[in-house]
Amino acid sequence: MLLLAGCARFDNDLFDAVSRNDIGSVDHMLRKGVGININKKDAEGRTPLFLAAFLGEKDIVHLLIKNGANTEEKNRFGETPLSIVATKGYTEVAHILIENKADVNAVNVDSVTPLMYSATYGFPEIAALLLKHQALVNVESKEKLTPLVYACVNDRLEVAELLIAHKADVNFNMQDRETILMTVCIKGDAALAKLLIDNGAQVNAQTTYKSTALMAACRNRHVDVVKVLIAAKADLNIKDENGETALDHAKRAGAQEIVKLLKDAGAQ
């Protein structure tokens, strides 16, 4: 019992030293802590390595791995140290983890991968590193979203460019056959809309309800996006399931500038 109590104290002290970025104490405990459990988890399922990765402590990360820390231990949400690093942008820590066999395609409880995290939080250096080590570019989460969807939903243009360069599917369909381009048009990001179109996004694709990207842009009064779509030869006169065109949607939204743009471009 006394031996077990001593081990528990060492384990708790190890978490404390990591939280303080005290590499000297961490090294001392790893050298002297007979029976110490380097992969012990706290109440959140985090190991000392997970905590060090979360805090960006690259030297402690390296030291813990050298002493047997498991790079694949997950917290209660199913996240690995590499997953959490992808949310923080710690490229050097990501390098260390990957060099020590961290799974670049590990999934959490929602099937979200490190690449999806880097796309969501906008860290192109992390995304590039993951892709270099064969991260899956068109993998889907439980919500049926891909890394490119996460990048576009969160306005991460640079990451989106990188993903597309690695063959991300620009015509991926989400619920009700909504495309990534439609989502971008709803949000109003003209630069992302142009990027998608320039790389093969189908400008006249329709949802289950026959709505188009142009209709979405008109409903949401995004003038610059409408200009991009008109320049890309979007069909101005397609009708949705209610028999309405983009011009009808623009009129209902009170978007007079868009109404003029559409009429000048030949909308009927």
From TrEMBL:
<feature type="repeat" description="ANK">
    <location>
        <begin position="110"/>
        <end position="142"/>
    </location>
</feature>
<feature type="repeat" description="ANK">
    <location>
        <begin position="44"/>
        <end position="76"/>
    </location>
</feature>
<feature type="repeat" description="ANK">
    <location>
        <begin position="143"/>
        <end position="175"/>
    </location>
</feature>
<dbReference type="InterPro" id="IPR036770">
    <property type="entry name" value="Ankyrin_rpt-contain_sf"/>
</dbReference>
<feature type="repeat" description="ANK">
    <location>
        <begin position="209"/>
        <end position="241"/>
    </location>
</feature>
<dbReference type="Pfam" id="PF12796">
    <property type="entry name" value="Ank_2"/>
</dbReference>
<keyword id="KW-0040">ANK repeat</keyword>
<feature type="repeat" description="ANK">
    <location>
        <begin position="242"/>
        <end position="268"/>
    </location>
</feature>
<keyword id="KW-0677">Repeat</keyword>
<protein>
    <submittedName>
        <fullName>Uncharacterized protein</fullName>
    </submittedName>
</protein>
<dbReference type="InterPro" id="IPR050889">
    <property type="entry name" value="Dendritic_Spine_Reg/Scaffold"/>
</dbReference>
<feature type="repeat" description="ANK">
    <location>
        <begin position="77"/>
        <end position="109"/>
    </location>
</feature>
<dbReference type="InterPro" id="IPR002110">
    <property type="entry name" value="Ankyrin_rpt"/>
</dbReference>
<feature type="repeat" description="ANK">
    <location>
        <begin position="176"/>
        <end position="208"/>
    </location>
</feature>
